[in-house]
Specification:
It is a single chain. This protein is an alpha+beta fold. It is 30% helix and 26% strand. It has 14 helices and 22 strands. The radius of gyration is 20 Å and the shape is globular. The relative contact order is 0.14.
Length: 430
């Protein structure tokens, strides 16, 4: 069977790497892929991003199954396009992807279906937004309504930071937000205290299978300081997601979301990521939804997944009203997986591209370097994005995983490389 992975980041490299190990898979293609997928002679990069052109290519090539990584193609309707031509594809439809592509849509949805989340208001007028922030005070959270590659959220600790974020998003758009129809909007919501975790499930329209728990580090610097990023590292499992928190998240957030979408006339398929804030009493609230796997959570998750990913996705995309995920149970490695992101000079605001990367090690059974923002020209691999690599390892406990990941990291060089030295510190404390 030929399989296509859509996307070019670290998440897609990890998916392609995993799918390549599956018994029934003869060839894995990645569109457009990156330097890491180009280095792997068992993967083939396809330089097509247009949705229709990709569908036509997949038809001609005889692709049996497609899985979508990033939010952009989902919001552009790639799933609808493939399905309308009778092709198996795992991901959210354009209508379902609004849960991620529009913060205003998702907050109104949560309010409508009584899904626990932070108090919020939505604004298009900068003056009204500034007045609301003044009234509420700081800390407060300012979110761009459209897609911003994980960078459209500012947790403002001061009023000055909140006002600056509003101007960034509504006036000069220095964060590069892809605004939705109707122009620039921000969602301003109360600051929730607690510990953040990533809760990711797979859904086939009816049946839901949770993945292993995971947690990422959003801030740029050690100790969770500095600006928000798309994620500087992650690990699985996450001790903060206890059995009780897990049950509550499924009962109060995940299942009501799937049922709520159905009530609204939208069948939810694909990955669903709920960013949770878990308070001191173990009560989860929803920070945001993503209609995809988390990045960099995917990298540790794929390292731990022992089940055949192709068979799981094949069951999820079984033709008919719903898939057959109810016949699937996932098997996980009991070890800890931990990934450290190596980011480019100037990330997150002004990442530099074009720095040559040296010292990339050969992958082993317990250490894989997944590529995100890289490109390959001849024999040279260089930086081409903000988050460049994710060094991901398996080990018997968190401390050993940290040691191993940082050993591998120290062998890799590129100018301006920045990374956190404390990934997994919360799990050590636990």
């Amino acid at each position: 069977m030929k399989v296509l992975v859509i996307g070019g980041g670290g998440r897609e490299h990890a998916l392609a790497w995993k799918l390549n190990t599956c018994a029934r898979v003869s060839q894995v293609y990645v569109a457009p892929g990156n330097g890491g997928t180009a280095l792997d002679d068992q993967l083939i990069n396809i330089n097509i991003t247009d949705v229709q052109a990709l569908r036509k290519w997949a038809q001609t090539e005889g692709i049996s199954l497609t899985v979508v990584g990033p939010e952009g193609p989902l919001a552009a309707g790639v799933v609808d396009e493939f399905r309308s031509h009778g092709m198996r594809i795992f991901g959210a439809t354009k209508a379902a992807a609004q849960l991620e592509s529009s913060k205003a849509f998702s907050k109104a949805f949560m309010q409508r279906h009584a899904i626990p989340t932070a108090e919020f208001e939505t604004f298009t007028d900068p003056a009204a937004a500034h007045a609301y922030v003044e009234q509420k005070g700081a800390p407060i959270v300012v979110k761009a309504d459209g897609l911003a590659a994980g960078k459209g959220v500012v947790v403002a600790q001061t009023l000055a930071e909140a006002h600056e974020a509003i101007d960034f998003m509504l006036l000069d758009n220095s964060l590069g937000v892809s605004h939705n129809e109707g122009g620039a909007r921000v969602v301003i919501e109360e600051f929730l205290a607690g510990e953040e975790a990533s809760f990711i499930v797979m859904c086939d329209g009816k049946n839901v299978v949770p993945l292993a728990t995971s947690q990422d580090h959003k801030r740029l610097q050690d100790g969770d300081l500095g600006p928000n990023t798309g994620g500087m590292g992650a690990y699985s499992p996450a001790p903060v997601v206890t059995a009780d928190v897990h049950a509550r998240a499924m009962r109060e957030i995940i299942l009501p979301t799937i049922k709520g979408m159905e009530k609204d006339g939208i069948t939810y398929t694909g990955f669903l990521y709920a960013g949770l804030m878990i308070d001191a009493k173990g009560k989860p609230k929803t920070l945001e939804f993503n209609c995809r796997l988390g990045d960099p959570e995917t990298q540790p998750l794929m390292m731990r997944l022992k089940s055949d990913l192709f068979e799981v996705l094949w069951a999820a995309t079984e033709p008919g009203p719903f898939g057959k995920l109810d016949q699937i149970s996932l098997d996980w490695d009991r070890r800890i997986a931990l990934g450290v992101v190596l980011a480019a000079h100037g990330y997150p605001m002004t990442p530099r591209k074009g720095d040559a990367i040296s010292g990339l090690p050969k992958n082993t059974d317990d250490a894989v370097v997944f590529h995100a923002g890289t490109s390959k020209q001849g024999d040279v691999v260089s930086t081409s994005g903000g988050r460049v690599l994710c060094v991901t390892v398996l080990a018997d406990n968190v401390k050993l995983a940290q040691q191993h990941a940082y050993e591998v990291t120290r062998g890799i060089q590129f100018d301006g490389m920045q990374y956190r030295r404390d990934i997994g510190f919360r799990a050590v404390k636990a």
